[in-house]
Write a structure and sequence with these properties.
Elements (H helix, E strand, L loop, with lengths): L5 E5 H7 L4 H16 L9 E2 L6 E5 L4 E9 L2 E9 L10 E5 L6 E5 L31 H6 L7 H6 L3 H8 L4 H11 L4 H9 L13 H4 L7 E2 L2 H8 L12 H8 L6 E5 L5 H14 L9 E4 L3 H20 L2 E3 L2 H11 L7 E3 L4 H12 L6 H13 L6 H6 L11 H20 L2 E3 H18 L18 E4 L7 H10 L7 E4 L24 E4 L1 E2 L4 H10 L5 E2 L5 E2 L5 E2 L7 E5 L2 H14 L5 E8 L2 H13 L4 E5 L2 E2 L4 E6 L8 E6 L15 H4 L1 H19 L2 E10 L8 H4 L5
Parallel strand pairs: 1-5, 9-15, 9-16, 10-11, 10-14, 12-13, 14-15, 17-20, 21-27, 22-25, 22-26, 23-25, 26-27
Antiparallel strand pairs: 1-8, 2-3, 3-4, 4-5, 6-7, 18-19, 23-24
Helix pairs in contact: 2-9, 6-7, 10-11, 11-12, 13-18, 14-15, 18-19, 20-24
């Protein structure tokens, strides 16, 4: 009696599959389904191709054959799909080896440079460069092998003398070889490449280069094995990179952590994808049930909706049904509502807090303090740190608050905040910061009520709200949010998993996680490979960040060293105009040069709502379909998307215009008043505006154009400003 077999697909094979017709793609899926059921099915015609019986072929349909590696007795790996006439012709071109560093199976294309079809990473305008000394002459073979470069490709690597030759080779080289050589070519020192590129994917156990059975189980062998993920990939219902993880990412997803863990990285490095796969990994380990023991949260409403859509595509309804997906303020509001603690008050946005403080000071005749200072002190220190008494406030640290306060001044401020809180309550309103503070206190009290002095349950049945908490865009949460989340999950292994990038912090939330009970020391990792933007766009985006120092959410500093992309394209265009009206003309001209696409692939980003409204009016008068990006994202997928910088978090476009990047708009002119009176506040606000521009500049995949009118923003370095379109 025949029994089934295990058949997994190597990530390289899906690139070939996706080039087939839709009918042939369906045939591949049908073949894999049949093979798993019965590999001895005569219609599949399974047979060895060489004297080394490990490499085999099987019939997909009348025109195509599958190349399989025989891993173990009834365990196979699909490594390629070829036309039946090519199966024997190309046998000598490919080698299948186990990488001695990662322990993963690699497909090595041995075709000489010049014989392969170069993919997207090589622009069509690349011209032959004059002969020069070999690119990697400074590195010994032993050094390259220690970095994980494929040994079989060393002879070709030694002959590379131009960037064009390098790009052609790397278009078909194994992943780690590509990552390492690109980093070295970009000038990254050897030790940094070893630390940032190789070590994160190094196998945890000794590698036997003949043990394919062990190799196929390692994260470095990127495969998919379940029908659901395979069908989604073959049906093009989900981006392939959302199914297949880079080995660095997979290790982070599947690792067991002894406590909270954090994954950082620049825009486009796959942090959100890692968070989603982490949720799926945790969900697969849950016992059967109908509860939702996993929380997936983020700051923005539109990002929370996007996370739900992506998780549904990744794992289906069964997975989503075990996960509570909600943005952080809605979660806090739910906690408060459960406790009937809100008193029916209306919640107003935090942006109104300075205005409300100003109104309160006028009504009460208090003239000793500025409304903006009190608003920031109340939201960031008192509410942000969930301080419940004057004594707590006297002892509280006030990071990033600028001027120091005496004990007498703190006493005055505390009394004012108590009166202000009562004033808001009498008006029937409160702010989202207050909601977060109340929710944090409720959750902390709930935990304390059921725990003894040692933190263990003191009696009765008690279960935290969640078993696992996963946070995307962690840099945007406030201290109160973190205190609430910490109280919602027991301090156990795999309790909290955070992804984020402080370079993309666009809200005024600066925290030190360790002081809030979220200890990530020793459990922080960083992704450095961008999958979204081209090297040219990335280089100019990094120029925007010149001179800034960012924190790592735990009291240290973080930079973008080693952040890189393997994609290539044209250089971004930078161009100025005399007036805003003339700049709008340039925008229309740029859109028409792109063919005025209306499929949602193009977007325009501006600093303010007023500028967005004026631009939308101009584009509509020119007959161009415009879609405004609101708090929940674009109102419809088609058209030309227009929005403020805040609205572009989490979005991605093929082409983008960033407009009105002028001094006084980016950064905002209003923050200049803090330059002398509150230098720390000035620096913090300036850094936030720089982060907004950085986020916008890293949204496009292929083309970026930056316009300004009058004087360009100081964030645009002189090198960028001097550049004009050809």
């Amino acid at each position: 009696m025949n029994t089934g077999a295990s058949l997994r697909m190597l990530d390289r094979a899906d690139k070939e599959v996706m080039k087939l017709t839709r009918a042939d793609i369906g045939a591949v899926y049908e073949f894999m389904h049949k093979f798993r059921h019965n590999p001895e099915n005569p219609g599949l015609s399974l047979k060895a191709l060489t004297s080394d019986t490990r490499l085999m072929s099987a019939r997909v349909n009348k025109d195509h054959r599958a190349l399989l590696l025989h891993i173990a007795e009834r365990d196979y790996l699909l490594v390629a799909v070829k036309h039946r006439g090519e199966v024997y012709d190309d046998l000598g071109r490919y080698a299948y080896r186990i990488n001695r560093v990662t322990g993963g199976i690699e497909v090595v294309d041995l075709a000489p440079v010049g014989d392969s079809i170069v993919g997207r990473v090589v622009p069509p305008q690349v011209e032959a460069e004059p002969a020069q000394k070999p690119i990697f002459a400074a590195y010994a073979d032993a050094q390259l092998l220690e970095l994980g470069v494929s040994e079989l490709l060393l002879p070709q690597i030694r002959e590379l003398t131009t960037e064009a030759e390098l790009l052609e080779l790397l278009d078909r080289a194994p992943q780690l070889t590509t990552d390492v050589l690109f980093a070295l070519f970009d000038g990254t020192p050897y030790d940094e490449v070893l630390q940032q590129v190789t070590d994160p994917v190094r196998a945890d156990d000794p590698v036997d280069t003949e043990d394919f059975e062990a190799a196929v189980e390692r994260p470095a062998t990127q495969v998919t094995s379940d029908d659901e993920a395979l069908q989604a990939m073959l049906g093009e219902a989900f981006e392939r990179w959302q199914i297949f993880l880079h080995p660095t990412q997979r290790k982070l997803v599947e690792r067991r952590y002894n406590g909270p863990a954090r994954v950082g990285g620049g825009p486009g490095t796959g942090k959100t994808i890692v968070a989603l796969h982490r949720v799926a990994h945790l969900a697969r380990q849950l016992p059967p049930g109908v509860d939702k023991p996993i929380l997936l949260t983020t700051f923005n409403r539109n990002l929370a909706a996007d996370l739900r859509t992506r998780l549904m595509a990744l794992g289906g309804q069964d997975l989503v049904s075990r996960v509570d997906i909600v943005n952080i303020d809605r979660l806090a509001s739910r906690v408060v509502a459960e406790a009937k603690s809100g008193g029916g008050r209306r919640v107003v946005t935090d942006s109104r807090v300075p205005e409300l403080w100003a109104e309160f000071l006028v009504e009460t005749g208090e003239a000793g303090w500025e409304a903006e200072f009190l608003a920031a002190e109340w939201t960031q220190v008192i509410l942000g740190q969930v301080l419940n008494s004057r004594t707590d406030y006297f002892k509280a640290r006030r990071p990033n608050r600028g001027r120091s306060l005496t004990r007498v001044e703190r006493d005055q401020i505390w009394q004012l905040t108590e009166r202000f809180t009562s004033w808001l309550e009498n008006r029937g309103i409160w702010t989202w910061r207050q909601v977060a503070q109340r929710a944090a206190r409720l959750e902390m009290d709930r935990t304390a009520h059921h725990s003894g002095a040692d933190g263990n349950p003191s009696g009765g049945f008690y279960r935290p709200r969640y078993r696992h908490v996963v946070v995307d865009e962690a840099q945007d949460l406030s201290a109160a949010h973190w205190k609430m989340l910490r109280a919602m999950v027991a301090p156990e292994p795999d309790d909290m998993f955070l992804t984020g990038d402080t370079h993309q912090r666009i809200y005024d939330n600066h925290v030190t996680l360790g002081s809030l009970g979220v200890n990530i020391r020793g459990r922080s990792s960083r992704l450095t490979l961008s999958y979204r933007t081209t090297r040219q766009i990335l280089a100019d985006a990094l120029q925007i960040m010149t001179g800034e120092v960012y924190d790592d959410l735990d009291g240290g500093e973080e930079d973008l060293a080693g952040y890189r992309s393997l994609l290539r394209g044209g250089r971004p265009h930078f161009r100025g105009a005399a007036t805003w009206a003339q700049e709008r003309d340039l925008i229309v001209e740029q859109l028409r040069s792109w063919g005025s696409p209306t499929d949602g692939s193009v977007a325009i980003c501006v600093p303010t709502k007023e500028l967005a409204a004026e631009l939308i009016s101009r584009l509509e008068s020119d007959g161009l379909p415009v879609v405004e990006i609101g708090p929940d994202g674009p109102k419809q997928p088609d058209g030309i998307h227009v929005g403020t910088m805040h609205r572009f978090k989490g979005l991605e476009y093929q082409r983008m215009v960033i407009a009105a990047v002028s001094d006084g708009l980016v950064p905002r002119q209003v923050i200049s008043r803090y330059r002398d009176t509150d230098p720390k506040r000035y620096q913090r606000e300036r850094q936030r505006d720089r982060s907004l521009l950085f986020v916008a500049a890293t949204r496009p995949r292929d083309e970026l154009t930056v316009f300004w009118h009058g004087t360009p923003s100081p964030f645009l370095t002189s090198r960028l400003v001097r550049r004009q379109p050809p």
